Amino acid sequence: MALLGQARAQVPAAAAAHATNDFAAFANTQHGRMIKAYEQRDIPGYQSKQAFDYLERSIRAGFINYTHIIKDPDLAELRNLSRFHTLIAPLRAVGDYPYILQRAASYDLADRRPLPAFRYEPANDSNLLALRSGLHLDSIAGGGSDVNQVIRLLHWMHDLIPHDGNNANPAVRNAMSLVAVCKRDHRGLNCRGLAIALNECYLALGYRSRYVTCMPKDSLGVDPDCHVINIVYIPSLKKWIWIDPTNDAYVMNEKGELLGIEEVRQRLIRHQPDKLDTDWGKDGHSITYNTNNPALFWAKPQ
Fold this sequence. Notes:
The protein has helices spanning 2-10, 13-16, 23-26, 30-39, 48-61, 66-71, 82-88, 92-95, 97-102, 126-134, 137-141, 146-160, 175-185, 191-204, 261-269, 285-290, and strands spanning 209-215, 227-234, 239-244, 249-252, 275-276, 296-300. It is an alpha+beta fold.
């Protein structure tokens, strides 16, 4: 509690409104420009004290990206100062997402709270039949195993509609309409829109599928970020797997076994390696990004 109290003191409520974990965006704020000026060594006659003061002001203004502060080579000189570590210590509990995840409690398997009743729309639903025919989903999924079909649909959706996280999705949010609007207006969808569209395509081919909102554990209430993916049940594997149309990604362990959300989360906690089968994720960026969001999941029944 004391640590959280210190962190709250570092990020006052007045500053929380513009707090961000995106250093590129934060660099456009007043205190962000001060830090970037130090990093670029264009402060006339800069001294460590000045640089430290700029960093302290930035943190008080709402910058809580602990990982950036720890790893940025331009801040290396400050890390030799004992007060540097005193300054950033409270940030770890709110801005070091791998650390937060590793301290998270295990799933409570004894939790018996009732869940909303729902069912998966059957593939013979008239709307899903129209979607299956209209988008030629059988041709896209092709033959072969259920795993191959699911992954082919993932690649197809990722290539069909570009990701656009800067604009809202269209008002009508069913797969047929979303695809048509994107083609007509030459536009994309955010992660939620892509997951909704792909979800219905899986349902149309008879696969149980959901779209899931991955939320960060945000004790300060300053991180609005989330990410939306799909989970799809693979009959041959008798398990749900992680499918991410935004990044054209699915996750495997060192044996090449496909993983679900709970498994990815547990492996991040244990520092076990995950393999993302996607060109975008080969540099490890996707796993880094997703570290902040597997703390809490909301499954949207569809």
